[in-house]
Amino acid sequence: MAMSAPPRNSQARNSQARNSQEGLTRREEMTVSGAAMSGAPVGAAAVTGGVVAAGDLGLHLLGGHVSGAALSGSLSLGVAVFFVIAAVGALMRARYGRAARWARNNPWQFAMLPGAAVAAIAFVLSVVLGGGIVGGIWSGLWHGAAVYGLTGVAGAVSRSRRS
User: How big is the CA angle at 141 (ends 134 and 83), to the nearest 5 degrees?
Assistant: First the structure.
């Protein structure tokens, strides 16, 4: 009896690890999510994120909390707001491409990309600005989870309203 060897090329391995729902691997889901995010209202998201970051930093300064952690927290909040506005805007735009349609039909899978991006950025900001590794992990986790949740809920609600 001959036993077959595992596939050697990455395409064959990826085809075995397919998501049963849409026939996409996690990597392909991230690629499609990135393509859907290309239609995001980046200008509006940048202005909103900047205003939120500046306002939060201003509140820290008014309270007398001047530190790297205050700056890190304000920047992380601004980045989170930027990604939420960009992702929700990409979902709400009336685009008809396959990536946009996939994102609207799979809001929770789509929300993974902005959530993971914010988690990574918040982690780096916290570590670089003096929050340490543990503080960075905590900051990344909660900022990423908040963006994932807000984006997923907005996508699910908009999907149910369009149906």
Answer: 130
